[in-house]
Amino acid sequence: MNPSQNPSAIRSKTEITETLLRLMGQYPYTEISVKHILLETPISRKTFYRNFSSKDDVLSSYIDTIMLQYMGVLENMGHYRMLLLFDVIFQFCELHKDFLKQLRDNHLLYMLLEKWNQLLPIMHEQIIKNKIEGEPIQDKLLTEYVIAFNVGAVWNMMVKWLENDMQESIENVKATMTDYLMHINELDLRWI
Where along the chain do its domains lie? Predict the structure, then answer.
């Protein structure tokens, strides 16, 4: 994606992105082409390719945008307790639930996971490491494994919630996870 800050380029990018998202609500992602996007907008082919390399690039750019919003919320937090992070994660899911459902329905959730795996180590370094309560983990390799463990746990929890069509309330899911985390040392994990 071309990161131009030109107002005309920003308008074009926004229109292309909004058109792709609208089309994803009507057609399977695999059936949407750049030509299809262009037929739905006054954008020229040249303008499209000046801003994006493909429809996947449009989708990736949109995911980057919402992940930057997520990072902004984390950056403004005063402290990082797991329950507060659950709140942020589920607020993110609630805010973007239609988009998440589109990703799920088109078997594209992996794109969000890939972005999380790219961005969370960066977020940890830039945002969380300096504000985290308690003793920070000093070992870089251990930190990478802890981040990977947490991403996997949160990811699968989010996917399960999406698979259940977000029927459970955020508060109920959070309460279940809180109860689990509070009693994890007492649990007999032989059932796993």
Answer: 7-53, 62-191
